[in-house]
Amino acid sequence: MKKICIIIAIAVSLCVVLPNTINCSIDDNVLTLINEVDGDLLLDTLIYLTSFGSRSSYEAQEEVLAFIGAELDSAGATIQLHEYEYNGHTWHNLVATVPGNASLEPSEPHLVVGAHIDSVSVSPGADDNASGVSALMEATRILAASYLTTRVDFVFFTLEEPGRIGSSYYAADARSSGEEIEAMIAVDMIAFGPADEDLDLVTKPSMAWIVEDFKEAVDTYTNLATTLVVQENCG
Predict the structure, then answer these.
(1) Based on CB atoms within 10 Å of each CB, which residue in 49, 186, 222, 231 is the most buried?
(2) Would you give the DSSP letter of residue 35?
(3) How far is CA 46 from the centre of its chain?
(4) Residues 66, 60: Cα–Cα separation, whole Å
(5) Would you say residue 211 lies in a domain?
(6) Does 112 map to a domain?
(7) Model-level pTM greater than 0.70?
(8) Does residue 201 sit within a domain?
(9) Per residue in 27-85, pLDDT tens?
(10) Catalytic site residue 160?
């Protein structure tokens, strides 16, 4: 799968960005995480996601969520469905929390890492965003078996292509319930581009700290050419 090292950057960055979250040295765990990346599994997930032809329908997105939930539950993550009503259907975002024994109290400080599962109606969405979903599933699988002491919620959003509907409902409900989200990383279209590997990191000023740490991790542990962009209107 093209740009497989991006998933390494994601998994690695979670360890480097969240100090004191792992029970042994950072470098030891980074090497362990890198060795756990399964390229064949990433490709299998990508093939499954693109097999729908399009993931724009309610039925397709519910089926994908069931697949993700089963896979990540067996990996040891705690699975929850975030429910919202839209256009005559009860839709869901899926939240996979690691470590599996993490406190789910809203006031527990945590990091959110998200990707949207839907595609536009005219595309199988291999890049946008099956690539991001595959990466997030692999990161969840790897970190579910690690010794994180800080909670990470991996969120798989529905209905993003029509206007960020799933994530908007999720963010509104998180705010109203008093969730203590320290930062959010969105993983989108990570397989797009020329043959040369590169990674673009875009953030707003208030979140620059986590992206700077992310870039440092990528620069240290991968050979990706990384560009950092900080702009007020990001997101």
Answers:
(1) 49
(2) H
(3) 14
(4) 10
(5) no
(6) yes
(7) yes
(8) no
(9) 556 777 777 888 889 889 999 999 999 999 999 999 999 999 999 999 999 999 999 99
(10) yes
